[in-house]
Amino acid sequence: MKIAIIGGGLAGLTAAAYLSKNPETEGTVFERSPQLGGRAFTYEKSGFTLNFGAHAVYGFDRHTLQMMEQELQLHFDSKQVDKRKVVYAKNGVLTPAPLDFVNIMKTDVLTVKEKLRFVAEVAAVIGNVHHLKNYATLGEYLDQAHSSEDVKELWEHLVCSNFFITPEDARQVSGEVIAEYYHNLFLSNRPVNYIIGSWSTITNQLADKIRNNRRWDIAVKEAVEAIDYVDGQFRLKTKTREELIFDQVILAMPIQQAGKLLDSTPWADKLAAYNANSCTEVLVYDVGFNHVVARPFHYISDMDHKVFISDVSATDHTVAPAGGQLLQGIAYLNDTFEDEEQKKRYLDERLQQMEALFDTHYPGWREQAEVKRVSKKAMVSSIKNIHSNQLLPVQLPGTPLFFCGDGCEGKGELAERSFSSGRAAAQRILAERLQLHAVAQ
Ligand SMILES: Cc1cc2nc3c(=O)[nH]c(=O)nc-3n(C[C@H](O)[C@H](O)[C@H](O)COP(=O)(O)OP(=O)(O)OC[C@H]3O[C@@H](n4cnc5c(N)ncnc54)[C@H](O)[C@@H]3O)c2cc1C
To answer: Is residue 440's pLDDT more than 70?
Structure first.
Protein backbone atom coordinates (compact mmCIF):
# COMPACT_ATOMS: atom_id res chain seq x y z
CA MET A 1 0.00 0.00 0.00
CA LYS A 2 1.46 3.32 -1.10
CA ILE A 3 0.58 6.24 1.15
CA ALA A 4 1.05 9.99 0.74
CA ILE A 5 1.14 12.10 3.87
CA ILE A 6 0.72 15.77 3.15
CA GLY A 7 2.27 17.87 5.91
CA GLY A 8 5.46 17.30 7.91
CA GLY A 9 4.32 18.75 11.26
CA LEU A 10 3.83 16.72 14.47
CA ALA A 11 0.71 15.00 13.11
CA GLY A 12 2.09 14.00 9.71
CA LEU A 13 5.41 12.76 11.12
CA THR A 14 3.56 10.74 13.78
CA ALA A 15 1.27 9.09 11.21
CA ALA A 16 4.23 8.29 8.94
CA ALA A 17 6.35 6.87 11.77
CA TYR A 18 3.54 4.46 12.74
CA LEU A 19 2.69 3.47 9.16
CA SER A 20 6.31 2.92 8.16
CA LYS A 21 6.62 0.24 10.87
CA ASN A 22 4.32 -1.98 8.81
CA PRO A 23 6.25 -3.87 6.08
CA GLU A 24 3.28 -3.72 3.69
CA THR A 25 3.44 0.06 3.45
CA GLU A 26 5.55 2.44 1.43
CA GLY A 27 5.13 6.16 1.15
CA THR A 28 6.19 9.78 1.09
CA VAL A 29 5.75 12.68 3.50
CA PHE A 30 5.36 15.92 1.53
CA GLU A 31 6.29 19.14 3.31
CA ARG A 32 6.10 22.47 1.54
CA SER A 33 8.64 24.25 3.84
CA PRO A 34 12.39 23.62 3.77
CA GLN A 35 12.16 22.26 7.33
CA LEU A 36 9.99 19.76 9.20
CA GLY A 37 8.00 20.38 12.38
CA GLY A 38 5.30 22.76 11.13
CA ARG A 39 4.13 24.95 14.00
CA ALA A 40 6.35 22.96 16.39
CA PHE A 41 9.41 24.00 14.35
CA THR A 42 12.50 24.68 16.49
CA TYR A 43 15.31 26.95 15.30
CA GLU A 44 18.64 28.24 16.57
CA LYS A 45 19.43 31.95 16.84
CA SER A 46 22.61 33.36 18.43
CA GLY A 47 22.95 30.30 20.67
CA PHE A 48 19.27 30.23 21.71
CA THR A 49 16.89 27.40 20.80
CA LEU A 50 13.60 29.02 19.93
CA ASN A 51 10.38 27.11 19.53
CA PHE A 52 8.12 28.65 16.91
CA GLY A 53 5.28 27.75 19.21
CA ALA A 54 4.70 24.99 21.68
CA HIS A 55 6.71 24.37 24.83
CA ALA A 56 4.53 22.62 27.36
CA VAL A 57 3.32 19.03 27.50
CA TYR A 58 0.25 18.93 29.73
CA GLY A 59 -0.38 15.85 31.89
CA PHE A 60 2.82 14.18 30.75
CA ASP A 61 2.27 10.82 32.47
CA ARG A 62 -1.15 10.47 30.79
CA HIS A 63 -0.14 12.04 27.45
CA THR A 64 -0.17 10.30 24.04
CA LEU A 65 3.61 10.93 23.94
CA GLN A 66 4.01 8.28 26.65
CA MET A 67 2.50 5.66 24.33
CA MET A 68 4.56 6.91 21.42
CA GLU A 69 7.73 6.71 23.49
CA GLN A 70 7.14 2.97 23.91
CA GLU A 71 5.51 2.07 20.61
CA LEU A 72 7.99 3.99 18.44
CA GLN A 73 10.96 3.62 20.80
CA LEU A 74 11.54 7.33 21.11
CA HIS A 75 14.11 8.61 23.57
CA PHE A 76 13.73 11.99 25.19
CA ASP A 77 14.04 13.63 28.58
CA SER A 78 11.46 15.91 30.05
CA LYS A 79 11.36 18.12 33.09
CA GLN A 80 8.48 19.22 35.28
CA VAL A 81 7.93 22.98 35.63
CA ASP A 82 8.49 23.69 39.34
CA LYS A 83 4.93 24.07 40.71
CA ARG A 84 6.19 26.18 43.62
CA LYS A 85 7.47 28.77 41.13
CA VAL A 86 4.19 29.09 39.23
CA VAL A 87 2.30 32.24 40.18
CA TYR A 88 -0.84 34.12 39.26
CA ALA A 89 -0.98 37.93 39.28
CA LYS A 90 -4.30 39.43 40.27
CA ASN A 91 -4.88 43.13 40.93
CA GLY A 92 -1.12 43.58 40.87
CA VAL A 93 -0.49 40.99 43.63
CA LEU A 94 1.44 37.75 43.04
CA THR A 95 0.18 34.55 44.64
CA PRO A 96 0.81 30.81 44.14
CA ALA A 97 -1.24 29.36 41.29
CA PRO A 98 -3.69 26.89 42.85
CA LEU A 99 -2.53 23.94 40.77
CA ASP A 100 -2.15 21.34 43.50
CA PHE A 101 -3.32 20.91 47.09
CA VAL A 102 -0.24 22.61 48.59
CA ASN A 103 -0.63 25.65 46.35
CA ILE A 104 -4.42 25.76 46.83
CA MET A 105 -3.79 26.12 50.57
CA LYS A 106 -1.20 28.87 49.99
CA THR A 107 -2.91 30.93 47.29
CA ASP A 108 -4.59 34.28 47.90
CA VAL A 109 -6.97 34.02 44.92
CA LEU A 110 -9.41 32.04 47.12
CA THR A 111 -10.63 32.46 50.70
CA VAL A 112 -10.49 29.48 53.12
CA LYS A 113 -14.13 28.60 52.40
CA GLU A 114 -13.57 28.87 48.65
CA LYS A 115 -10.50 26.65 48.92
CA LEU A 116 -12.62 23.91 50.46
CA ARG A 117 -15.20 24.36 47.73
CA PHE A 118 -12.55 24.23 45.01
CA VAL A 119 -10.90 21.13 46.50
CA ALA A 120 -14.32 19.44 46.47
CA GLU A 121 -14.74 20.43 42.81
CA VAL A 122 -11.31 19.02 41.92
CA ALA A 123 -12.22 15.77 43.72
CA ALA A 124 -15.50 15.58 41.77
CA VAL A 125 -13.66 16.07 38.46
CA ILE A 126 -11.16 13.36 39.41
CA GLY A 127 -14.03 11.06 40.38
CA ASN A 128 -15.80 11.87 37.10
CA VAL A 129 -18.93 13.00 38.94
CA HIS A 130 -18.68 16.79 38.45
CA HIS A 131 -21.91 18.31 37.03
CA LEU A 132 -19.85 20.38 34.58
CA LYS A 133 -19.78 17.48 32.11
CA ASN A 134 -23.57 17.71 31.70
CA TYR A 135 -23.53 21.34 30.57
CA ALA A 136 -23.26 22.41 26.93
CA THR A 137 -20.68 25.06 27.85
CA LEU A 138 -18.58 26.27 30.78
CA GLY A 139 -20.57 29.53 30.62
CA GLU A 140 -23.88 27.71 31.15
CA TYR A 141 -22.40 25.81 34.07
CA LEU A 142 -20.96 28.96 35.68
CA ASP A 143 -24.24 30.84 35.26
CA GLN A 144 -26.05 28.19 37.30
CA ALA A 145 -23.31 27.17 39.75
CA HIS A 146 -23.61 28.32 43.37
CA SER A 147 -19.85 28.96 43.69
CA SER A 148 -18.42 32.37 44.53
CA GLU A 149 -17.25 34.74 41.80
CA ASP A 150 -13.61 33.94 42.66
CA VAL A 151 -14.09 30.19 42.12
CA LYS A 152 -15.90 30.90 38.85
CA GLU A 153 -13.09 33.21 37.75
CA LEU A 154 -10.58 30.50 38.59
CA TRP A 155 -12.35 27.95 36.39
CA GLU A 156 -12.47 30.46 33.57
CA HIS A 157 -8.79 31.30 33.98
CA LEU A 158 -7.71 27.64 34.05
CA VAL A 159 -9.51 27.04 30.75
CA CYS A 160 -7.98 30.23 29.27
CA SER A 161 -4.48 29.05 30.12
CA ASN A 162 -4.79 25.41 29.07
CA PHE A 163 -6.72 26.11 25.85
CA PHE A 164 -4.83 29.38 25.07
CA ILE A 165 -8.09 31.35 24.71
CA THR A 166 -9.82 34.47 26.02
CA PRO A 167 -12.39 34.37 28.88
CA GLU A 168 -15.21 34.88 26.37
CA ASP A 169 -14.07 31.80 24.44
CA ALA A 170 -13.41 29.84 27.65
CA ARG A 171 -17.11 30.17 28.46
CA GLN A 172 -17.90 28.60 25.07
CA VAL A 173 -15.91 25.39 25.64
CA SER A 174 -18.14 22.34 26.15
CA GLY A 175 -18.54 21.14 29.74
CA GLU A 176 -17.81 17.59 28.65
CA VAL A 177 -14.52 18.59 26.97
CA ILE A 178 -13.41 20.50 30.09
CA ALA A 179 -14.42 17.73 32.50
CA GLU A 180 -12.48 15.14 30.50
CA TYR A 181 -9.45 17.41 30.08
CA TYR A 182 -9.18 18.21 33.79
CA HIS A 183 -9.96 14.63 34.80
CA ASN A 184 -6.65 13.76 33.11
CA LEU A 185 -4.74 16.82 34.26
CA PHE A 186 -5.80 16.66 37.93
CA LEU A 187 -4.91 12.97 38.04
CA SER A 188 -1.50 13.64 36.51
CA ASN A 189 1.61 13.61 38.66
CA ARG A 190 3.42 15.62 35.99
CA PRO A 191 0.96 18.37 34.96
CA VAL A 192 3.31 20.69 33.02
CA ASN A 193 6.52 19.37 31.46
CA TYR A 194 9.00 20.57 28.88
CA ILE A 195 10.76 18.26 26.46
CA ILE A 196 14.45 18.93 27.05
CA GLY A 197 15.92 20.37 23.86
CA SER A 198 12.47 21.38 22.54
CA TRP A 199 10.13 19.64 20.10
CA SER A 200 12.96 19.02 17.62
CA THR A 201 14.13 16.24 19.98
CA ILE A 202 10.97 14.41 18.93
CA THR A 203 10.52 15.57 15.33
CA ASN A 204 14.15 14.63 14.50
CA GLN A 205 13.64 11.10 15.81
CA LEU A 206 10.33 10.66 13.96
CA ALA A 207 11.95 11.94 10.75
CA ASP A 208 14.96 9.60 11.21
CA LYS A 209 12.66 6.60 11.60
CA ILE A 210 10.90 7.49 8.36
CA ARG A 211 14.09 8.30 6.42
CA ASN A 212 15.90 5.18 7.66
CA ASN A 213 13.13 3.02 6.23
CA ARG A 214 14.01 2.28 2.60
CA ARG A 215 10.30 2.08 1.61
CA TRP A 216 9.58 5.60 2.85
CA ASP A 217 10.93 9.06 2.10
CA ILE A 218 10.40 12.69 3.06
CA ALA A 219 10.14 15.35 0.37
CA VAL A 220 10.71 18.84 1.78
CA LYS A 221 10.15 21.99 -0.26
CA GLU A 222 7.56 20.00 -2.18
CA ALA A 223 4.05 21.37 -1.70
CA VAL A 224 1.19 19.21 -2.94
CA GLU A 225 -0.77 21.43 -5.32
CA ALA A 226 -3.62 19.20 -6.50
CA ILE A 227 -5.27 15.88 -5.68
CA ASP A 228 -7.31 13.79 -8.07
CA TYR A 229 -9.03 10.44 -7.41
CA VAL A 230 -9.43 8.06 -10.35
CA ASP A 231 -10.37 4.35 -10.24
CA GLY A 232 -9.69 4.06 -6.52
CA GLN A 233 -6.24 5.70 -6.73
CA PHE A 234 -5.02 9.15 -5.79
CA ARG A 235 -3.03 11.22 -8.29
CA LEU A 236 -1.01 14.02 -6.76
CA LYS A 237 0.52 17.00 -8.49
CA THR A 238 3.32 18.62 -6.51
CA LYS A 239 5.45 21.71 -6.95
CA THR A 240 8.08 19.66 -8.78
CA ARG A 241 6.33 16.50 -10.04
CA GLU A 242 3.35 16.06 -12.35
CA GLU A 243 1.57 12.81 -11.47
CA LEU A 244 2.36 10.68 -8.44
CA ILE A 245 0.09 7.73 -7.73
CA PHE A 246 -0.91 6.59 -4.21
CA ASP A 247 -3.45 4.17 -2.70
CA GLN A 248 -4.10 6.36 0.31
CA VAL A 249 -3.73 9.99 1.31
CA ILE A 250 -3.56 11.59 4.75
CA LEU A 251 -3.97 15.34 4.97
CA ALA A 252 -1.88 16.34 7.99
CA MET A 253 -2.40 20.07 7.91
CA PRO A 254 -4.73 22.75 9.31
CA ILE A 255 -8.25 22.69 7.86
CA GLN A 256 -7.66 26.18 6.43
CA GLN A 257 -4.91 24.71 4.20
CA ALA A 258 -6.70 21.40 3.49
CA GLY A 259 -9.81 23.34 2.42
CA LYS A 260 -7.79 25.23 -0.23
CA LEU A 261 -6.12 22.06 -1.51
CA LEU A 262 -9.44 20.24 -1.87
CA ASP A 263 -11.38 23.25 -3.14
CA SER A 264 -11.88 21.97 -6.68
CA THR A 265 -12.40 18.29 -5.78
CA PRO A 266 -15.75 16.48 -5.39
CA TRP A 267 -15.16 16.43 -1.61
CA ALA A 268 -15.16 20.23 -1.19
CA ASP A 269 -18.80 20.21 -0.03
CA LYS A 270 -18.09 17.66 2.71
CA LEU A 271 -15.40 19.97 4.10
CA ALA A 272 -17.43 23.17 3.93
CA ALA A 273 -18.83 22.77 7.47
CA TYR A 274 -15.30 22.49 8.91
CA ASN A 275 -13.88 25.35 6.85
CA ALA A 276 -16.19 27.73 8.69
CA ASN A 277 -14.54 26.91 12.06
CA SER A 278 -12.53 29.58 13.83
CA CYS A 279 -8.94 28.95 14.98
CA THR A 280 -7.06 29.90 18.17
CA GLU A 281 -4.46 32.63 17.77
CA VAL A 282 -2.09 34.24 20.27
CA LEU A 283 0.54 36.95 20.40
CA VAL A 284 3.99 35.47 21.09
CA TYR A 285 6.96 37.39 22.52
CA ASP A 286 10.28 35.50 22.84
CA VAL A 287 13.24 37.28 24.47
CA GLY A 288 16.69 35.81 25.07
CA PHE A 289 19.44 37.21 27.32
CA ASN A 290 23.10 36.22 27.76
CA HIS A 291 22.65 36.31 31.54
CA VAL A 292 19.73 35.91 33.93
CA VAL A 293 17.96 39.29 34.11
CA ALA A 294 15.69 38.20 36.99
CA ARG A 295 14.17 34.90 38.07
CA PRO A 296 11.40 35.63 40.54
CA PHE A 297 9.33 32.65 39.28
CA HIS A 298 9.22 30.23 36.37
CA TYR A 299 5.74 31.06 35.08
CA ILE A 300 3.55 34.05 35.75
CA SER A 301 -0.02 34.28 34.56
CA ASP A 302 -1.62 37.72 34.66
CA MET A 303 -5.28 37.01 35.47
CA ASP A 304 -6.34 40.59 34.80
CA HIS A 305 -4.97 40.82 31.25
CA LYS A 306 -4.83 37.12 30.23
CA VAL A 307 -1.13 37.29 29.42
CA PHE A 308 1.55 34.92 30.67
CA ILE A 309 5.34 34.72 30.71
CA SER A 310 7.28 31.44 30.95
CA ASP A 311 10.94 31.41 31.96
CA VAL A 312 11.59 28.53 29.58
CA SER A 313 15.29 28.29 30.46
CA ALA A 314 14.50 27.89 34.18
CA THR A 315 13.11 24.45 33.34
CA ASP A 316 15.08 23.59 30.19
CA HIS A 317 18.60 25.04 30.50
CA THR A 318 19.53 23.75 27.00
CA VAL A 319 17.51 26.46 25.22
CA ALA A 320 19.85 29.33 26.20
CA PRO A 321 23.66 29.70 26.10
CA ALA A 322 25.38 28.82 29.42
CA GLY A 323 24.21 31.27 32.09
CA GLY A 324 21.64 32.79 29.73
CA GLN A 325 17.87 33.11 29.95
CA LEU A 326 14.99 32.60 27.51
CA LEU A 327 11.55 34.00 28.27
CA GLN A 328 8.38 33.46 26.26
CA GLY A 329 5.34 35.68 26.66
CA ILE A 330 1.92 34.72 25.30
CA ALA A 331 -1.26 36.81 25.12
CA TYR A 332 -4.61 35.19 24.29
CA LEU A 333 -6.46 36.99 21.50
CA ASN A 334 -10.03 37.89 20.60
CA ASP A 335 -10.98 37.20 17.01
CA THR A 336 -13.99 39.40 16.39
CA PHE A 337 -13.40 42.94 15.19
CA GLU A 338 -15.53 45.56 13.49
CA ASP A 339 -12.79 46.44 11.03
CA GLU A 340 -9.05 46.25 10.37
CA GLU A 341 -8.39 49.49 12.25
CA GLN A 342 -10.00 48.13 15.44
CA LYS A 343 -8.02 44.89 15.07
CA LYS A 344 -4.74 46.78 14.69
CA ARG A 345 -5.45 48.90 17.77
CA TYR A 346 -6.34 45.77 19.76
CA LEU A 347 -3.11 43.95 18.79
CA ASP A 348 -1.00 47.03 19.64
CA GLU A 349 -2.72 47.21 23.02
CA ARG A 350 -2.04 43.51 23.70
CA LEU A 351 1.62 44.06 22.78
CA GLN A 352 1.85 46.92 25.27
CA GLN A 353 0.22 44.82 28.02
CA MET A 354 2.76 42.11 27.35
CA GLU A 355 5.70 44.52 27.49
CA ALA A 356 4.29 46.03 30.70
CA LEU A 357 4.33 42.56 32.31
CA PHE A 358 7.99 42.16 31.27
CA ASP A 359 8.73 45.66 32.68
CA THR A 360 7.22 44.75 36.05
CA HIS A 361 9.04 41.47 36.56
CA TYR A 362 12.18 41.77 34.42
CA PRO A 363 13.37 45.38 34.89
CA GLY A 364 15.97 46.39 32.29
CA TRP A 365 14.96 43.58 29.90
CA ARG A 366 14.59 45.93 26.92
CA GLU A 367 18.23 47.08 27.01
CA GLN A 368 19.64 43.62 27.74
CA ALA A 369 17.73 41.57 25.15
CA GLU A 370 20.12 39.61 22.92
CA VAL A 371 17.44 37.95 20.80
CA LYS A 372 13.84 39.01 20.30
CA ARG A 373 11.02 37.55 18.21
CA VAL A 374 7.48 38.88 18.17
CA SER A 375 4.60 37.28 16.33
CA LYS A 376 1.40 39.28 16.63
CA LYS A 377 -0.78 36.40 15.46
CA ALA A 378 0.39 32.80 15.75
CA MET A 379 -2.06 29.94 15.18
CA VAL A 380 -2.06 27.70 18.25
CA SER A 381 -4.94 25.43 17.31
CA SER A 382 -6.34 25.22 13.78
CA ILE A 383 -9.86 24.64 15.14
CA LYS A 384 -10.68 26.36 18.42
CA ASN A 385 -12.29 23.69 20.58
CA ILE A 386 -15.41 25.68 21.48
CA HIS A 387 -18.98 24.44 21.50
CA SER A 388 -19.94 26.10 18.19
CA ASN A 389 -16.95 24.64 16.31
CA GLN A 390 -16.72 21.07 15.09
CA LEU A 391 -13.48 19.10 15.10
CA LEU A 392 -12.67 17.26 11.89
CA PRO A 393 -13.07 13.45 11.97
CA VAL A 394 -9.89 11.46 11.27
CA GLN A 395 -11.79 9.63 8.52
CA LEU A 396 -14.19 11.95 6.73
CA PRO A 397 -17.45 10.05 6.04
CA GLY A 398 -18.43 9.78 2.39
CA THR A 399 -14.85 10.35 1.19
CA PRO A 400 -11.71 8.18 0.90
CA LEU A 401 -9.78 10.84 2.85
CA PHE A 402 -7.98 10.66 6.19
CA PHE A 403 -7.01 13.71 8.23
CA CYS A 404 -4.85 14.38 11.27
CA GLY A 405 -3.74 17.49 13.12
CA ASP A 406 -4.70 19.67 16.03
CA GLY A 407 -8.07 20.44 14.41
CA CYS A 408 -9.03 16.77 14.32
CA GLU A 409 -10.91 14.62 16.79
CA GLY A 410 -8.47 13.01 19.20
CA LYS A 411 -7.26 12.88 22.76
CA GLY A 412 -6.11 16.04 24.52
CA GLU A 413 -5.68 19.58 23.28
CA LEU A 414 -3.18 21.35 21.01
CA ALA A 415 -0.10 19.27 20.16
CA GLU A 416 -1.52 16.20 21.91
CA ARG A 417 -4.40 16.18 19.42
CA SER A 418 -1.89 16.26 16.56
CA PHE A 419 -0.06 13.25 18.04
CA SER A 420 -3.21 11.32 18.97
CA SER A 421 -4.98 11.93 15.63
CA GLY A 422 -1.79 11.10 13.67
CA ARG A 423 -1.54 7.81 15.54
CA ALA A 424 -5.27 7.13 15.05
CA ALA A 425 -5.13 7.83 11.28
CA ALA A 426 -2.25 5.34 10.90
CA GLN A 427 -4.02 2.71 12.99
CA ARG A 428 -7.28 3.03 11.04
CA ILE A 429 -5.54 2.70 7.69
CA LEU A 430 -3.69 -0.39 8.89
CA ALA A 431 -6.87 -1.88 10.39
CA GLU A 432 -8.73 -1.37 7.07
CA ARG A 433 -5.87 -3.04 5.25
CA LEU A 434 -5.98 -6.03 7.60
CA GLN A 435 -9.74 -6.31 7.06
CA LEU A 436 -9.27 -6.33 3.28
CA HIS A 437 -6.68 -9.10 3.67
CA ALA A 438 -9.06 -11.15 5.81
CA VAL A 439 -11.84 -10.79 3.22
CA ALA A 440 -9.48 -11.74 0.36
CA GLN A 441 -8.31 -14.93 2.09
C1 LIG B 1 2.68 30.15 20.03
C2 LIG B 1 2.24 28.73 20.16
C3 LIG B 1 2.31 28.10 21.39
C4 LIG B 1 1.91 26.77 21.51
N5 LIG B 1 2.03 26.17 22.73
C6 LIG B 1 1.71 24.87 22.85
C7 LIG B 1 1.95 24.20 24.08
O8 LIG B 1 2.48 24.76 25.04
N9 LIG B 1 1.60 22.89 24.16
C10 LIG B 1 1.04 22.21 23.11
O11 LIG B 1 0.73 21.03 23.26
N12 LIG B 1 0.84 22.82 21.93
C13 LIG B 1 1.15 24.13 21.76
N14 LIG B 1 1.00 24.75 20.56
C15 LIG B 1 0.30 24.03 19.48
C16 LIG B 1 1.19 23.10 18.64
O17 LIG B 1 2.35 23.78 18.22
C18 LIG B 1 0.37 22.64 17.44
O19 LIG B 1 -0.84 22.06 17.92
C20 LIG B 1 1.08 21.57 16.60
O21 LIG B 1 2.40 21.95 16.33
C22 LIG B 1 0.29 21.38 15.30
O23 LIG B 1 0.90 20.35 14.54
P24 LIG B 1 0.18 19.79 13.22
O25 LIG B 1 1.08 18.76 12.65
O26 LIG B 1 -1.20 19.38 13.56
O27 LIG B 1 0.04 21.03 12.23
P28 LIG B 1 1.19 21.93 11.56
O29 LIG B 1 2.30 22.11 12.51
O30 LIG B 1 0.51 23.15 11.05
O31 LIG B 1 1.72 21.05 10.35
C32 LIG B 1 1.14 21.07 9.06
C33 LIG B 1 2.25 21.02 8.04
O34 LIG B 1 1.67 20.88 6.75
C35 LIG B 1 2.44 21.63 5.83
N36 LIG B 1 1.60 21.84 4.63
C37 LIG B 1 0.46 22.57 4.54
N38 LIG B 1 -0.03 22.52 3.29
C39 LIG B 1 0.81 21.73 2.58
C40 LIG B 1 0.83 21.27 1.22
N41 LIG B 1 -0.12 21.63 0.34
N42 LIG B 1 1.85 20.47 0.81
C43 LIG B 1 2.83 20.08 1.68
N44 LIG B 1 2.85 20.49 2.98
C45 LIG B 1 1.85 21.29 3.42
C46 LIG B 1 2.78 22.89 6.61
O47 LIG B 1 3.88 23.56 6.05
C48 LIG B 1 3.08 22.29 8.00
O49 LIG B 1 4.44 21.98 8.16
C50 LIG B 1 1.42 26.07 20.38
C51 LIG B 1 1.37 26.70 19.13
C52 LIG B 1 1.78 28.02 19.01
C53 LIG B 1 1.74 28.67 17.65
So the answer is: no
